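== Fold encoding ==
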Amino acid sequence: MDRIDKKILSIINKSIPISERPFLAVAETMGMSEAEVLDRLKKLKTSGIIRRIGATISPRAIGWNSTLCATDVPMDRIEEFDEFVGGYGEVTHNYLREGHPNCWFTLISPSSYRIGEIISEIEHALNIKILNLPARKVFKIKVALEIE
């Protein structure tokens, strides 16, 4: 990743222009072509530096439900856990932390029933117990990192 990639990431991390061709606007800001910006972003995604580019929507604002989940997974089963949990489109974040519980993930779904189904499916398939921690109050902060 070079300084141009870092500058592009800094720009899109703060805000992607709302237009038919948002990356053309980014390209114009950078003094480069839209094709070059898209090519660089594709390479960053392929390499795993970018996981996704998309909107962040408040689940409650659209009548959906969300929850934070935690569980303890033996280190030799982390990859299995990651692949299984990551297979659910409703999982927005899935990460490993030090301490206990060591695996955390967030679920967003149109219904709390579906969240319960997913948790049960994961528990059953992986023979683990998941702690379900639905938010009582949501605090949303804007994180805009300067990548340069």
